[in-house]
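[step 3/7] inverse_fold.run input=structure_tokens len=208
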């Protein structure tokens, strides 16, 4: 079966506290209860009914919000879901929960690229470095994850981490920085639109 011209799906695997749909101003439609006991019945047709569509053309898989619920989603459900998604889209971007899940290792090992997003503070960089080490030890991945430093303020004088400090601390795992641009990013989030609709070729969009 042929697929549409280049297509992308964003998958939010933080089933109880995910924020992808909030940032895009859309509703999550993934119904875990419908596939909980029979993950094998999930096919492209059923998946289509659980996709949320953004006006930009991006497809999103995310559960509806229930902040008091902490679903215990089995590895078989997650891996079946991702398998069907990967067969249906050219690119798949997965947003992972911070806490390690029974299926985390399988998802990481099946990924082409893995990024850890950190902030430009000493505690955040230490946590990112520790997470990198843990991921490598637990998954035996040949491809080492990379670190993206978010909300970076370039400093020439005064206190704070400089680009050279980040590069030294993270070494070959340092993927680069996304600059701090409160106005553009927060307006895009509040309106649920891409960055370019707020400001063409902003420094944030170019960095990403």
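[step 3/7] decode complete -> sequence:
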């Amino acid at each position: 079966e042929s697929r549409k011209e280049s297509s992308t799906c964003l998958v939010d695997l933080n089933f109880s506290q995910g924020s992808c749909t909030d940032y895009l101003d859309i509703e999550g439609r993934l119904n875990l209860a419908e596939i909980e006991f029979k993950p094998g019945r999930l096919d492209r047709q059923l998946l289509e009914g659980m996709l949320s569509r953004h006006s930009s053309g991006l497809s999103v898989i995310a559960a509806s919000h229930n902040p008091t619920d902490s679903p215990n989603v089995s590895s078989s459900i997650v891996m079946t879901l991702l398998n069907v998604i990967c067969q249906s889209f050219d690119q798949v971007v997965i947003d992972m929960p911070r806490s390690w899940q029974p299926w985390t290792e399988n998802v990481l090992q099946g990924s082409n690229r893995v990024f850890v997003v950190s902030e430009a503070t000493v505690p955040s960089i230490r946590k990112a470095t520790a997470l990198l080490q843990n991921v490598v030890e637990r998954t035996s991945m040949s491809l080492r994850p990379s670190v993206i430093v978010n909300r970076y303020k370039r400093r020439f004088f005064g206190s704070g981490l400089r680009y050279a400090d980040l590069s030294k601390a993270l070494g070959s795992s340092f993927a680069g920085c996304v600059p701090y641009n409160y106005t553009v990013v927060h307006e895009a989030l509040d309106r649920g639109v891409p960055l370019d609709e707020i400001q063409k070729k902003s420094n944030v969009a170019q960095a990403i």
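[step 4/7] annotate
The mean pLDDT is 87.
The first strand starts at residue 8 and ends at 12.
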